Each structure stands twice: as C-alpha cells, then as structure tokens.
Amino acid sequence: MAGNIPSGLLEACLVLGVSNERLKDIHLTQLQGKGKEPLVEAEVLQVHAPPFVTKESSSNGTQQDLDSAFCRGQRRRSFKKKRDRPLSTISDSGQTNEPVVSGSDDLSVPQNIDLIALLQLCFPDGLRITNESREDSYHFLVFTDVFGNQTHGVVAQYCKPVHYQQDNGIHQNSQQLKKLQRLYTTFSICVISKYPYYNALRDCLSSFLLQLKTSRMCDFEEQVKEFSAKMALVPIPPPGPLNVVFNLRPFLIELPSRLDVDRPVMDLDLHLPFLCFKPKQILQIISSILMEQRVVFLSTNWAKLTLVSECFMVFIHPLRWQHPFVPVLSRQMLDFIMAPTAFVMGCHTSHFEEVAEELDDLVLIDIDKGTVSSSTSNRFDLPDVPLTARDCFIFRAKGLQLHYDLDVCDAASRSDINDQRAHRRQWQRKVNSVILNVSMELIVNIFSEVCDFLNYEHRVFNSEEFLRSREMTDHTFYKKVLDTHIFHSFLRDRLNQRNDAFTRMQLNIRSSESRRIKTLTVSPRRPTMEAINRKFVQPENGLNRRLGMSMPNLADHRLLTVPIRQTSMGTMTFQSAGSWSPSRPIKTFKLPDFPPPLSYQYVQNYYNDLIRDLSKAISGASPDDSALLARYYYLRGLVNSVAGKRLDALTDFQSLYKTDMEIFPAEMLNVLVESLPVEERKTAERRPDLKRLISRVKRESDRERARPVDGGSVKRFKLPKKHLHMEDFVRRVQESGIVRDQGTIQRLFEALTVGQQKQVDPETFCFFYNFWKESEGASQDVDLPVVVLEHLETDECVYKLSSSVKTSHGVGKIAMTQRRLFLLTEGRPGYFEITKFRDIEDVKISSAPFLLLRIPTLKIKTSHRKETFEANLKSECDVWHLMIREMWAGRKMADNHKDPQFMEQALTNVLLMDAVVGSLQSQKAIFAATKLAYFDKKKHEVPTTVPETTSETLKHKINPSLDQTAPQAVDILLYTPGQLGVSELDGGGNPKLWCALSDGKVLVFDAASWTMQHNSVQVGKSRLNCMLAVNQQQLWIGSKDSFIYIINSRSVSCNKQLMEHRGAVTGLALEERTDRFSQTLAYSCSEDSSVIVWDVSTLQVKGQFRVPCVRPQSIQIHNGMLWCCGGDCLLEVRRNGTVHRKVSLPNHLLSSPRGFSSFLLFNESEQLWAGFADAGELCVWHCRDLNKPFIRIQLKDCTAVVCMIRVKNQIWVGCHGRSPEGKTRGKIYVLNKDRYTVEKELMAHEDSVQTLCSAEDRYVLSGAARADGKIGIWKVE
Questions:
Q1: Is residue 562 pLDDT above 60, yes or no?
Q2: Cβ proximity of 715 and 459 under 8 Å
Q3: Cβ contact 1211:1234 at 8 Å
Q4: In CA terms, which of 367, 442, 982, 1027 is 20 to 30 Å from 1044?
Q5: Are 1069 and 1083 in contact (CB under 8 A)?
Q6: Mean pLDDT within 777-787
Q7: Does domain 271-446 have CATH number 3.40.50.11500?
C-alpha cells in the first residue's frame, strides 16, 4: 500500500539574494573603485510554505480551524530575520519598495531544510554584483535527511538591474537628474518539493519569470506568494496511467505519475547520459555505484550534475543508493568529499585538480568530456560488470534512437507551443520507456541468478555457492558488490518476495523453455550437455545464459530442449519492466484554472470544481478500465479530504480499496479517521462499508507496524560450530541449498547418525557439505569428447563418474546421468551405452577371480541386450550397486505413476548416498547410505505398478509444491481457455491452470505445456474455497477470511477485493447475460447463509438475501434459478431470495453430521446429482418432480464424496477412500450419467481428492490433499 503521500506539489518556495542595504554598501564600494564584481553573501529574503489560507475569521475576530490547502501538518521551525532595518528590493525605476520581510516577521520553514546550506546551493558559484546582465539559468538540488528521505529543489536564477543616484537622493520632478550607476544583482527562486519533478517545476518557474519580468517590482512578494499558493493546490497523481495537467500561462504543465508503486517519479530525460557517455563508460559508472565507491561527477553546467546523477539512480533500480547523495556541491562544501563513507557527489569542473589531489580512491566522472577515471590515474581501475550483461547492454544501447530532431525532421512545424511541448513529452516518454527496459534488463542479467541461492524460509543467502556459480572473470565484481549495503537491501526485498519491476522482468526475460527447466526440477545442480557445449561455442550475443547451472529436467526431453537464445540484430522489441505496458496509453486529467489562491472562499470553490470534474471523469470512465477509475477515486478522495469533506473522502477511499489496493493510501486514511469529529465518526461507524474499511485498515496498519523496521534480516550461510539435533540439522541443510524436502533431510540425518547419538557433530556436517560441493565442482570439470556428446540429450547431466575400471567392454569410466549409464572408454575416447534405467532387469554384486583374490563385480542385466554387463568396481562396487538400484526403482515409479518427480527425488537420494559414503569413510558408510534408498525399499513394501485403467487414463502428474519444504494441499483448480490475439506481455494467449494452495497462495501454470508460468500470488492468509472466471480479465476467489479477492488474469496480480460478506465465502456462480445490453451478474454465498448479487462491471452490490440452510457450500445458476447446496438440504431459490423448492437429506443419511458435500444439475436430462460428506454414494433426483424416488449409486471403497464435475456424458467424482491396507487414498470414479454406472475407478492420489476441473473436455485435472499435494492430469475418452 502506498504511504502517507504529501498531497501538494509544493513543499516551500524561497527567494534568496542580497538585501537593499547591502546593495547600497556595494554601490559605494564600486564608486570608490575598490573592486570589481565583488563576491557577496546571499540572504534568505522570503519563505513561503503551506498553509497559505485558512477559514476567514468570524465576525468577532476569532480564527476558526479548518483543513488548509493541501496542508501536510508537518513540523516547521521559525526563521527570523536578524536585521533591525527592513529588507527592500530595488525596482527597475530605482524606487525603494516597501519591505519584503519586516524584521519582526517569522518565516515558517520546513523542518528538514538547512537554510545555511540552501544559500550556498542556490548560488554554488557565489553571488556577485556585476555591471552586465546575465541570462536566466536553472539548476536542481537534492536534500537528504538523516533517515534517507529526499527532498528536491529547482532553482531559477534571474538577473535584475539596480539603480541608485550617487547622492542617494530621489528627485523625480527635477529638471536634471544625477548620473545613475547601473548594477546587476541575481536573485534565486527555489521551489522545494517532496518529488523530483525537475522538468515540471522548471516549466512552472519559467512561466512565473515571464510574468515577473513584465510586472512591477512592488508586487514582487505578493506574486511569489501567489505563485507558491498555486503550486500548493496541485495534487500529486498516484502511480499508474494517469497524469495531472494544469495551466500556468503560457504553458500547459504535465505532472507524470510514477510508473509503478515501487518506482520513484521520473520527470527526467533519461537519454542524457547516453548523449554524454559511451555505453562502456555508462557501465563503468553503474559498476562504481553498485560497488559503493566514492563517486564525484564534474561539469561546468550545474544543471547537468543533478540530472545525470539522478538518471544513474534510476538505472540501478530496484537497488537503492543508501549513502550520501549530494549532486551539487558549492565551493564552500568541497570538504564533504573528505567523508569516510561511500557517496555520490557533484562539483564544478574547475575543482577537478583540487578534488583529485585530496583522496586516492575517488571515481571522477567528467560529464562534459564523457570520461571516467580514478583520482590516482587516468584509467578506470574497478572491475567491469559481468561479460554477459555488458555485451547485452552495449548491444541494446547502440540501437537506441536518442535524437528528437531526427524523429521530427519530416513533420510539419507546430504553431502552438503547447502542442509542440506535448509532442516532445510523448517522444521523451517513449524513449524513457525503452531506456528503462534496457537498464532493468542489465540489472536482471547481473542479479537474476541471486534468487536461485536464497532460502526463503530461513532468510539465508548462500553467497559462496553463488560466487562459485559465476565465471572466474566476474568474481572480483561480485565479491565487491555482495558486501555492499545496496545489495543487502536488494536481498531483503527478494526474500520478502517483493513483486516489483525486477521480478516481473525476470519472469519475462527468461524464455518459456528456461522457465520450464527451473520450475519443474529440484535436483542438485550439474551442468547439462548444452552447458558443456557452450564452453566451446558461445551464442553470438551471450544473453541470459545459465552459466552451467541449469537444473536437470526429467520430463519429455523433446519438450525441454533449450535452444541457444538468439537475438535479432535488427530492431529490438522490449518487454515492459513496469506494471504498465509502454504501449498502454497514458491518460491526463486537467485541473481547473487556478483561483486567486490567497482567498479561502475562492480556494473552496476551486476544490468544488475539481471534485465536480473528477466525478464527471468517474461517470464517463469505462467500468472495465478499473486502473483509471482507481486513480480518479484516489484524486477525488484526496481533494475531498483537504476540502473538509471527510465522509465523502472515506467513501472514495472505500471505492478505491475495492478497485485497486495497490495504491491505497493506508496512512493517509488513518490520519483522516483520527481527525474525524465525534459526530462524523459516529456517522461513519453507522455505515457498514465504512466501518469495515476503517477496522480492516487499522488491523493492517497494526500488522505493518509489528513487522521489522528494516524489512527483516538477511543471513549468509555458515557451517555449524556445534552439534545439531534433528530440527537444527533440517534447518542447516535447507539453508545450504542441498535439499529442501523435510522427509529426505530426516533420512539423511538417520544416515549420518548411524551407530551414534542422534546428533550430527560439526566435523561430520562439514565433511559431508564439502564432499557434496566437491562433487558439484568435479561435475563442472567433466570434459566429454564430442563423440560422447552426440549420444546424449541436451538436458542430460553427468552426476557420477567412477574411477577407471575394467569392464566386459573394455577399460573406462562408468558415467551416470539422469537417464542412463554409459562407459567412457579410455585410450581412444569412445562411448558405449550400458543401459537406460527403464531397461534394467536386474542389478547384483558378484565376485570375479583375479590371481588369488576375488574382486567385487557389479552385474547389470538389461532388456535390450542378451549379455550381462560386468564391471570390476572394487571398493566402489557397493555404493554403485545402491545408486543404480535406487535410480532403477525411481525410474519405474516415475513411469508407472506418470510423475517425473519420482525420478528427480531418486536422483537426489543417489547423490546424497554418494556424499554420505564419501564423508563417513568407515565400514558403516554403506549401511548408512541404505537409509537413503527410499524407492528401492518402497518397491518391496508396496507394488510399484498401478492398475491398468489408472495407468491408461493418467497422462501426467505435476507437483505445485516444488519450492516448499513439505507438500501443500491443492484446494482449488480452475482452467481458463486461451485468448487469441493476446500478447505475452499482456499475460499470453495460452490457456492457464490456476492452482490454489494452502494459506492463500495461488500458482499459475501454462496449460499448453503444464509448466509453471508465474510466481505465486498471495491472496490473504486463509484457505481459499472457490474460484470463478467472471470474464477474460477477472478471476474471483472466495476465501475463508470472508473476502472475495479479484485477480487480474492477464497481469496475474491481485489489487481488488470485495468485503461485504461476514463469513467464509464458499461458493461463486455467474449468470450469463441474456443480451449485450444487460448486466453480467455474479452470485456469492458464505457460511452464514447470506447470498450477495454483484454487478461484475462495477463491483457494486445489486442485491442481498439469506437462504434457510446450514453452511452453504456451493451455488449454481440453472434455468434462471439459483440452486444452493447446504449441509442439510439443497435449495432452489428465486432471484428475490424466496425458496421455490427444497431437497432434504435422504432418510438413511439424516444422522450424517456434515450432510451434502456437492451437487450437479443438467439441463437436457433434468437431473440433480448430489454427493455426501460422510457416505460413499451418490443420489440422483428428477428435477421436474423431486418427489419421485431418487436413484442411489454406491461407490466401492469410498468413504466420502468431496467434489464432482460433468465432462461430456460422464460424471467425474473425487472422493476420500481407503486402500485394502486401511491407508487413505484419493480415488476418482467416472460414471455414465445416463446408465448411472461406474465406468472407471481410478487410484488417483495418496490422499483425498480435494478438487476437480475440466480442461475443455479433453482433460480432467485433480488436486490432492496435503499428504500427496500433487495435480493429476487425466485423459477424457
């Protein structure tokens, strides 16, 4: 949620220059010829800060309090002029004006502004009184407080002539005037804002100076105050596709909104650095910032210092600079460069030599010359960014179109200045969007792999493993970056799973094939054959390579071949790094013309006009454009709050909360609620919608305050120094990244503690960890000849290589991949395939005679070769025997159950066996390794085969809990069809499978390949009960916490929710429109028996009623009537909520504690099918006459019906069943709806079937409870 955002553009406006008295003294000095262009000390002449107007005094003279114009209520301090004599400015005619600020006036100054520093920064070159006029100039400032909060300033310097008569007398009516001496003084007007609106504020000041130069100087103070008051009336637009435009003649000025909540305002020309530096130098500057060096920008132009350095702060997003940032240093501030910490500062080029001589480790960046050097040499001595990222960035940068004149050389000249400026802004917005994507892609290419070495449960980053995965040439860069504060903050955001621009581009930038590899595998890291090939043949562009760290994938290899990613050398098509696509149009909202801003009544009228215009915009906006509606609600709520219409503001914020939670200003709402008078507070609490909003925001605010201020700690993985019991051992192994599954780690614990106390000593853990990592390192160095690579699939990895042994097919080394065993022959390198694991018939150990000894020999019998393969593995024989048997058993389980994860788990077990044997080095090592032979033992305990019907119907199984430490229950599954003509940027046109896991987590799979498509979306913290696709853009999810969460199915983000229910939402149904003019209505039911009717387009409640049943569980629309399934009955309800018909529990089930569990209705056969939560049977009623005897269908070995769906002419029923051994099983029964018979009985899962859904009647998908936690994909006949 957005924070308490200051609502006005202006924080303060100051006028700085030389007082009238000081000018007279300088004038006398000039007459005496004692100096030329003396350097004088500037003073603060005026300070203007909100509030500017309050409610007019009552007739008795008392001041009544009211909300002031965009007042932020912040602390301010008084600044009082010390001179006794009044200050004066000098008019063009030489007349002395009235005092600008009297000696007794208090100047209200924002608390975080240092006036002494401001005087120096507004005149960084010093203030001189000259004999010649100078052109107006602008420069930009950044102020940072001790908490890191930034304030921004735009300074306009303009020159004014000063006239004095030599005798200091004034004789306007005299016939002869004394000779005048003309001097010129410079004034600075500094506008300070919380936001870096550099271009917009410069335009505002330019417009104001045009007005100032044509007006009388006696009106100077009033004009500055009026200008400041106008700026304070300008609201800041919320993040998103809506900019605010206002008229400040002669300019129309546009305030751009933030692209996203996590991004700062970008009112910058991001192409400026590309005009000043070559791509190589830009990368050097970014590298310096990422390594937190002491960086000094140099230029002869003060404006360039801030604009260019701010661009680099944008380029490193989402990493945030956390050290001193002072882009403009006056000559009095040069000692700041002696600071012992990292910093980014800027100063005039004339100070280059002085700065370079002071310190030895400065990075000096000359903007004018486009050079980057060290203070000790002319070269840049710091490490470059990684080669892959560097090559990509340089290639992209060369394709940028950065010259506006080239783009408009064929366009007609524009006669209207605002039209010309709008066209220039549009061009700049387009260029900025492309540059943002280029810079974000650079950061993603540098840091994308970091996420693979994070343990989210324990908040650990395995830095050593990450470094080991990098190219040796990049180690120096990463070693420096990994120790910085900026990187630590980045890690914290990743561990908090922040869904920012980095995360979105990280998902987009990876091809679907590489995402598939990462998503579907959890096996230990080894280089694939493709990665080994890349050691010798690099792709042309070197983009996004995995650096030998791709994970093996055991699914169909034909689908998983990862081609080398090629990049077209023509025009690049960039994906959006932010939440708004670059092609998405940006709307503008024009503010009303400014009133006389120092009159309370006129300001109130302005607010009323602004509210009226926003109301018109809301009524005229399309209900489908919720993003735009949310921004209008935000602005109207903001204006209502400052206009004193607090209840109206609460109503707007309540609408905003339902429309887009992402930009909801929670802190602002809390402040607004606390300021409510007693009567208004009572009124708000009498409105249920406002009362719920206030209480929910308060709870969320309390929860937010309870979180760590720093966002949570980040730990680096370290080896233990004390003995580990089971719980500590599980945590340490998970932190190490070796394996995450708790069951596997517990078996590993048993293996390492064989024959001793149930604790692992630090030495054993260290030996085991080092052996594991040495094995990984050895696999990186496997050098396979080309003749061998030709026989292997591109995604295969060599996991184990024996020593050189004698075999029945010559001398060589036995190699094991996830698919096969092969012999790497010695002498002349060759390849002999021993067997694929699925072809093994037997593996055993025997002995072969050698002189007087008998050497252990491993014999492998396969189905595709008559002779048995023999290998004299000697001391390695036992461990190879264990490993091959485990891989064989895992392969059989994976093939029989159509579940590739079994093979992946077997592979993990095998590598753990090898590490256990290698680390223990004792007689008990082999026995210890047997503790990890999970599948080899399981095939002896239970049959590995599955029933023929189940095997023929099952197509595949996927595990949505791969990134979890334990399986999670699959509570809901929903299939949504693909959409033609939808780009991948907008969510892709492929069909999707939505999977709701425990505790409010939703995963999205590409249903064309059954691969995970996006990261999880968190919708609340409670169990999710139902899911409904109401249209192509909205997915509604009912939760146990009584909320309906709305996910945008294209962006896969949840920013809306409906809060009207009081109990757990259990069912959702959609009523299709009868014609194109009618409304689409949705129905929802909750456990407290309430049903709410919703208008889908507006999300407004159209009706509400209660149904007389216990615990409603689901609802359906049938023939214009609403059917509701409760625990005690089935109800047919009219639209007004009255009951039309009722079906009670059958007599033989009246004692059932839970009653009905699910039901189905059919139009053509007029049938009503129902299942029961405590009985393994179905009942079928005739809808035309519910009094007719119903049909009972018994389901063998079923104890409860959980869910059912109709697919073609079949009914698929998901049940809770029991095996003959009494173990829980999830079974699916396929029934013929006409003959009422069971056609198939499928052994689906090892736990209850929780949910079923159909994929276009071609497949049925089943989700299992926690003990299984998998998704089954079944073919439909």
A1: no
A2: yes
A3: no
A4: 982
A5: yes
A6: 80
A7: yes
User: What integer best gives the mean pLDDT of the chain?
Assistant: 83
Give the CATH number of domain 743-941; options: 3.30.530.20, 3.40.47.10, 2.30.29.30, 3.40.109.10.
2.30.29.30
pLDDT tier at 513 (50, 70, 90 boundaries)? very low
Which amino acid does the sequence have at 960? P
Q: What is the C-alpha to C-alpha distance for residues 140 and 590, in angstroms, rounded to an integer?
A: 26
Q: What is the mean pLDDT of residues 33-43?
A: 70
Q: Please state, in angstroms and rounded to a whole number, the distance separating the CA atoms of residues 1058 and 1037.
A: 10
Q: What is the dihedral of CA 375, 380, 381, 385, to 10 degrees?
A: 140
Q: SS3 letters for 942-991?
A: CCCCCCHHHHHHEEEEECCCCCCCCCCCEEEEEEECCCCCCCHHHCCCCC
Cis-peptide, bond into residue 239, ω within 30° of zero:
no
Count, residues in the chain: 1277
> Is residue 109 classed as helix, strand or coil in its secondary structure?
strand
Contact 42, 122 (CB under 8 A): yes
Report how far Cα 589 is from the mean position of its chain's Cα atoms.
Answer: 28
Distances (CA, A) of 716 to 461, 483, 738, 965, 1164: 5, 11, 15, 20, 64
For 957, residues 6+ apart whose C-beta sits below 8 A from its C-beta are 897, 898, 899, 901, 1270, 1271, 1272, 1273
Residue type at 750 in one-letter notation: E
**What kind and span of H or E run contains 407?**
helix 404-407
Sheet strands side by side (includes 1249-1255): 954-958, 1271-1275, 1259-1264, 1249-1255
Our CA angle for 914, 916, 919, nearest 5°, is 105
What is residue 88's predicted lDDT score, i.e. its pLDDT? 36
Amino acid present at 182: R
Instruction: Please compute the mean of the pLDDT values over residues 240-256 and round it to a whole number.
Output: 93
Longest dimension (CA), the chain: 138
Pairing of strands 820-825, 830-836: antiparallel
Cα–Cα distances in angstroms (integers) from residue 429 to residues 256, 417, 423, 424, 435, in the given order? 10, 18, 10, 9, 10
Q: Report CA-CA distances (Å) from 862 to 21, 821, 1117.
A: 105, 11, 58
Contact between residue 1094 and residue 1082 where contact means Cβ atoms under 8 Å apart = yes
Rounded to whole angstroms, the Cα distance separating 651 from 669 reads 11
Distance in angstroms (rounded) separating the CA atoms of residues 256 and 240? 9
What is the tens place of the pLDDT at every residue in 597-651? 888 889 999 999 999 999 999 999 888 788 899 999 999 999 999 998 999 999 9
Average pLDDT of the segment spanning 1133-1155: 89
What does the domain layout of the chain look like in residue ranges?
Answer: 1-51+110-164+181-256, 271-446, 592-705, 743-941
Choose which CATH entry (3.20.20.70, 3.40.50.10090, 3.10.25.10, 3.30.450.200) describes domain 1-51+110-164+181-256. 3.30.450.200
Other C-beta atoms lying within 10 Å of the C-beta of residue 1220: 7
Q: How far apart are CA 562 and CA 549, in angstroms?
A: 13
Angle 450-455-458 from CA coordinates, rounded to 5°: 140
State the pLDDT at residue 711.
66
In angstroms, the CA 1161 to CA 157 distance is 78
Residues linked to residue 1226 through DSSP beta bridges, in sequence order = 1216, 1245
Contact predicate 644/67, CB 8 Å: yes
Coil vs helix vs strand at 243:
strand
Region of 1256 on the Ramachandran plot (φ > 0 left; ψ -120 to 50 alpha; else beta): left
If we measure between CA atoms, which residue out of 191, 42, 46 comes closest to residue 119? Answer: 42
Mapped onto helix, strand or coil, the DSSP state of residue 834 is strand
Q: What angle do CA 248, 253, 254 make, to 5 degrees?
A: 150
